[in-house]
Amino acid sequence: MAKFKLDEIDHQILDMLIENTRVPFTDIAKSLSISAGTIHVRVKKMEDAGIIKGSSLTLDYNKMGYSFIAYVGIFLQNTSQTKFVLERINDIPFVTVAHITTGKFNIFCKIRAKNTEHAKDIIFMLDDIEGVYRTETMISLEESLNDKKRLMHSIFNDM
């Protein structure tokens, strides 16, 4: 498949959709002084090319009582247990992200909890998974950077 070429209009559309995935195409069209039909066609082309994959909703977990964030590095007894362990991790809803990694850890997870006591319980759940040798936890004091736009702008500038 040929590489999809984005132009400045596509970039501006993506910029607005990253900011708010629910922004109506008519609002984007007004902002860019083009028709809503053109926006629809361009978004569809980007979806068909795999550049846009669905849309997401950002929740304010702090307002929902889940302000505690920790990262847990998981050491496995054997790397052959990775798939099994990931299936068990998937059963723990408080683990919001899991990566298979190289380096120090076999798996690296992000957890969200209500407080330190709740985080301890989640970490113990991870420790209790068959095949987990041990875990190492880092507590997030503050999320200082979480910006999808900066990367998108950098990618666009490289094109």
Written account of the structure:
- The protein has helices spanning 8-19, 25-32, 36-48, 82-89, 116-127, 148-158; strands at 68-76, 95-100, 107-113, 132-139.
- It is α+β, with helices and mostly antiparallel strands and 159 residues long.
- It has two domains: 8-56, Orthogonal Bundle (Arc Repressor Mutant, subunit A), CATH 1.10.10; 68-139, Lrp/AsnC effector binding domain/regulation of amino acid metabolism (RAM) domain (Alpha-Beta Plaits, 2-Layer Sandwich), CATH 3.30.70.
- α1 packs antiparallel against α6 (148-158) and α2 (25-32) crosses α3 (36-48).
- It is elongated, with a radius of gyration of 20 Å.
- The mean pLDDT is 92.
Brief account:
This protein has about 160 residues and is of the alpha+beta class. The chain has helices at about 10-20, 25-30, 35-50, 80-90, 115-125, 150-159; strands at about 70-75, 95-100, 105-115, 130-140. It starts with 7 loop residues before the first helix and ends with a helix.
